[in-house]
Amino acid sequence: SHPVKLVVPVAAGGGIDTAFRAIAPVWSEQLGAQVVIENKPGGGQVLGSDLVAKAKPDGYTLLAAGVPIAFNTALGRKLPYDAMKDFTPLSLVVSQPLLVVVNPNVPAKTMAELVAYAKAQKQPLQYTSGGIGSYGHLWWEMFRSRQGIAGEHVAYNGIAPALKDVMGGQVPLLVDAIVPSGAQVAAGTVRGVAIVSSQRA
Question: What's the whole-number mean pLDDT along residues 119-137?
Fold first, then answer.
């Protein structure tokens, strides 16, 4: 009977933002009511999630929950909501693998070359992701630990500014979902090194 608010807890242009912006018009048509996206980034998706947790539970405020809704709980973060009690899961909407990309000035073209490059640096290799506690952040921490790579995470408030700085050469490495980074690989502004998946994307 009135518009539905879809809270996307990342900055505009981030992986799940791109997916839900494509889906929202279809939902609007199916529901006969406008689905309005409201970006609420920050805090590893906690700010947007909290907004929805405290909203009137009438089905008119939805959360586009990403992987951090599970990670934040599993990592023992003190949260202003209970992820298991304050939300009702509706559907898996999108699944996408991680993508490891580098600025084109980084000479590595494979993961083996990237590991060798990282180990050869005098300073810890800087990298970025969709944010602290994001899937890309945690995966790279696991990977670099296993490979014996020193690293420094450069935190951004969303994937769009992080990707922009990797394209500009301020940070050499990014690990995040294939959307939107994959489009920049195709455009040649960053180099794709690997897909974190058992299958080709």
Answer: 91
